[in-house]
Design goal:
Elements lengths: L1 H11 L15 E3 L13 H12 L9 E3 L11 E6 L7 H12 L3 E6 L4 H11 L6 E2 L29 E7 L2 E8 L3 H5 L2 H4 L3 H20 L1
Parallel strand pairs: 1-2, 1-3, 3-4, 4-7
Antiparallel strand pairs: 5-6, 6-7
Helix pairs in contact: 2-7, 3-4
């Protein structure tokens, strides 16, 4: 796992570098059990990948990948994404494998699409029983890695009102999980006619998504 990440980061370590034509970044969307709609916002990741490809020198794939935690090729993806409205449940083997993935260089972005908070926190406590989510300060690099977000996460959807929150789990000093809560970035990445978000909201969501990817690939 670490070797694959190091090779991948060789091409991605600085966003302004030119990339090998054979190197193409994609996002692995986690397919999970429990009844939650892991497949929600189906156009979101392709739009994010396109935006990143057009606005950075990261060469991106046209499509995201769908990945189960027990898939043989899980460790081929340096960046995983999980979202949904409902229940998330990991088996004991999935808990063990996701922990192995994360402590060996992988990164997980969780984006609450309104309704997954309780189950996601419960399952991640199984993955990292010794760690708690902590709220990241607005000065954290993830808010400034490519675009500047001095006030932290942008607010895309209202949900229960109130400000958005960016939480993280660290392992040995490295941020391995970033959890965007009460914002719904994925809805902002969807095609414009899906949620009818104003252009400025969609743009801020896409920029923040770019920041998360750039941060994950350079730290």
């Amino acid at each position: 796992m670490k070797l694959k990440i190091i090779i991948f980061l060789f091409f991605l370590i600085i966003p302004s570098l030119s990339f090998s034509q054979s190197c193409s970044f994609t996002i692995g969307r986690i397919k999970y059990s429990g009844g939650g709609d892991w497949y929600t916002d189906p156009t979101s990741l392709e739009n994010l990948l396109k935006f990143i490809g057009e606005n950075t020198n990261i060469k991106t794939a046209k499509k995201n990948a769908v990945v189960s935690i027990l898939n043989e090729d899980l460790f081929s993806y340096p960046y995983l994404y999980i979202t949904g409205h409902g229940n998330i449940r990991f088996s004991a083997k999935e808990v063990e494998r996701l922990r192995k993935y994360l402590i060996n260089g992988g990164f997980l972005h969780a984006d609450d699409c309104y309704g997954m908070d309780k189950s996601f926190r419960r399952e991640m406590k199984k993955v990292f029983p010794e760690q708690d989510f902590i709220e990241l300060p607005f000065s954290h690099k993830i808010y400034h890695s490519f675009y500047d977000f001095p006030d932290g996460l942008p607010k895309i959807h209202e949900h229960d009102g109130g400000p958005p929150h960016g939480y993280g789990i660290y392992y040995e000093g490295r941020l391995v999980v970033f959890y965007s809560f009460n914002t719904d970035l994925g809805d902002g990445w969807e095609d414009p006619d899906v949620h009818n978000d104003p252009p400025e909201k969609r743009l801020s969501a896409l920029k923040m998504g770019t920041n998360i990817v750039v941060y994950a690939l350079t730290n």
